[in-house]
């Protein structure tokens, strides 16, 4: 169902890779709600994914950009404003990568070059993106910037590895830069802490199936899906949330406030 919540609004969506990705689902919902956008991802990710299909479906253009490169980000923001015909109203940062996780390096035996790469891609890229938007005065007043995160930023999930540190840093950047964006530009900055979701990236985490089943049993409303996250992001991009900023917003079916559930107790009580 469409409510035209984003009619006339324009923005950039980072990270759509394939139809399993949250950014992909969000792009579809933004389009349904009347929004226009430029799609972007790293050149290597674009070669691996199916983003051209999404671009056709949403009548959008693709501008490749390595989100760790200031040169690429400058080009992305300038081209996006040119394509869309003016300043931006929303930006979605949906990027995360850990080479240590990919290559099976445990948290207690990190390859620090890989750690730095993952930190740059997953967290510092958010600062670089916002710095570019801020310095170019590329956001309209009451615009909205959202990054996706996970609760491992606050609690221990051993196999989430150095991505937990990356997400904690990402959330701090959102608060710190969000202050300046709010005071100086009337732009809001928030993070959405999503349930474990079977995206291409998420399924790379060791024990992911157990992870997602546990969260499902712990959450009173069950896990939030990629579609649920897309809907929440649409709400955060709309004018209905104009005074919400500097927040880490949980979209997790209630998991974040649970200690234990009867379903989990029952699972461990069975003989």
In short:
Helix content is 45%, strand content 15%. The protein has helices at residues 22-32, 43-48, 51-58, 70-84, 99-102, 112-135, 163-185, 208-218, 226-237, 262-269, and strands at 10-14, 36-40, 61-62, 88-93, 139-149, 188-194, 248-251.
Estimate nothing, just give the exact number of structural domains.
1
CATH fold name, please? Rossmann fold
The SSE string, one letter per element, is: EHEHHEHEHHEHEHHEH
Tell me the number of strands: 7
Radius of gyration: 18 Å
CATH homologous superfamily designation: NAD(P)-binding Rossmann-like Domain
Report the structural category: alpha/beta
Task: State the separation between the terminal residues, measured CA to CA.
Answer: 46 Å
CATH class: Alpha Beta
- Largest sheet geometry: 7 strands, parallel
User: Which regions are unreliable across 5 or more consecutive residues at pLDDT < 50?
Assistant: none
> On the 0-100 scale, what is the average pLDDT?
95
Task: Tell me the fraction of residues in β-strands, as a range.
Answer: 5-15%
Instruction: Tally the helices.
Output: 10
Can you list the strand order of the major beta sheet? Answer: 3-2-1-4-5-6-7
Which assembly state applies to the chains in this document? single chain
Helix percent band: 40-55%
Shape: globular
């Amino acid at each position: 169902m469409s409510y035209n919540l984003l009619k006339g609004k324009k923005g950039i969506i980072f990270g759509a890779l394939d139809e399993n990705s949250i950014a992909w689902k969000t792009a579809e919902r933004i389009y349904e709600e009347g929004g226009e956008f430029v799609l972007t991802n790293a050149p290597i990710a674009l070669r691996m994914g199916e983003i051209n299909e999404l671009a056709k479906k949403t009548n959008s253009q693709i501008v490749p950009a390595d989100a760790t490169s200031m040169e690429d980000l400058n080009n992305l923001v300038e081209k996006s404003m040119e394509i869309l015909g003016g300043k931006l109203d929303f930006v979605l940062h949906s990027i995360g990568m850990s080479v240590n996780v990919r290559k099976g390096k445990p948290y207690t035996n990190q390859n620090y070059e890989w750690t730095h790469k993952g930190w740059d891609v997953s967290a510092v890229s958010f600062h670089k993106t916002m710095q570019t938007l801020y310095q170019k005065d590329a956001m309209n007043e009451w615009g909205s910037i959202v990054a996706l995160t996970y609760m491992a930023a606050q609690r221990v999930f051993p196999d989430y590895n150095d991505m937990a540190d990356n997400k904690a840093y990402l959330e701090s950047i959102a608060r710190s830069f969000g202050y300046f964006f709010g005071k100086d530009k009337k732009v809001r900055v928030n993070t959405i802490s999503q349930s474990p979701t079977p995206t291409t990236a998420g399924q790379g985490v060791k024990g992911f199936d157990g992870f997602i089943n546990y969260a499902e049993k712990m959450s009173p409303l069950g896990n939030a899906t990629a579609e649920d996250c897309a809907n929440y992001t649409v709400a955060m991009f709309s004018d209905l949330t104009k005074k919400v900023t500097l927040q880490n917003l949980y979209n997790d079916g209630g998991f974040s406030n649970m200690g234990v559930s009867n379903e989990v107790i029952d699972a461990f009580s069975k003989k």
